[in-house]
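Render this sequence as a predicted structure.
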Amino acid sequence: MKKFNEQATADLFEKGLITENQFEEVKVYRSLNIFSVNTELKLFLYLSVLLFTSGIGILIYENIDSIGHIAILSLLLVVTAVCFFYCFKNSKGFQKTETQFEHPVLEYLVLLANILTCIFIGYLQFQYKPFGEHYGLATLVPTIVSFFCAYYFDNRSVLTIAVTGLAAYVGLSVTPHDLLNNNDFYASQSLSYSAVMLGVLLILWTIYSNRIALKTHFSLVFLTFALHIISIAAISNLMHQDSFTWIIFAGVLAGSTFYFYKISYQLKAMSLYVFMIVYGYIGANILLFRLFDTIDFSDFWELLIFLLPVYFIGSIIMFIKLIKNFHKEIAE
């Protein structure tokens, strides 16, 4: 990394983007071997929020009979209200552009308050059912609160909770593992279409937000969710026996791959580019095997077995080459 930074600085100097005096100052600064612990400190703050909320959950579980529901809910409400009061008091208010708290701890207090809100509403619904049998409302309310907090306090972590809650409201569990294991896309076509529609809505909201310059730095969060949701829903349906169904989702995956190929270059987002390639590769292989399934390869079976390792090795080499080319292009 040190050698890479030195080379990058030398390239800037050779291109005339920095003066010789600036070049020397950069070299002197780097020779001091000063490094930032900002990332490490934020990681510990994030872990502390997770451990605190996990501790509350364990406390409730182990002492539910001795503490009582009212006492637990009251404690959650008080702690949540204190966190929100402190955050609102020290925030700069809503702004369309990217904003930050003067102290980074406040950012994690917003996250804590939001998680506690979700716990409070979930516990309240589970114990007293204020929303009756409409469990979707118990998901929608904290989702709305999360979206409000994400935009008001400019918090990406809370935005992630908000989008996850929105996905849960339409019947999804938004992680690649849970999407494949807990959501039966194959049996429920309506769930698959809902997933695709949610992904499309996230993309449209991103486009609209960029057009009106509303929190444009949130684009990567929305697009990441959209990429995973659309691609996994499409891939899960490519094996469907109904030709009309799998052709539709093949088209959805092709369109998604093309769009995220273009947008990954536009945003210079390596994560979108990598997952776009992975999902596109998986979909292409499924379609290839469907094609092979319709052709009798009994006379060429040995040849196919011989070519299979070559194919996968070539795929790995091509994947690495694509990543290198992408990194090179966005760095220029």
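Summary. The radius of gyration is 25 Å. The first helix runs from residue 2 to 14.
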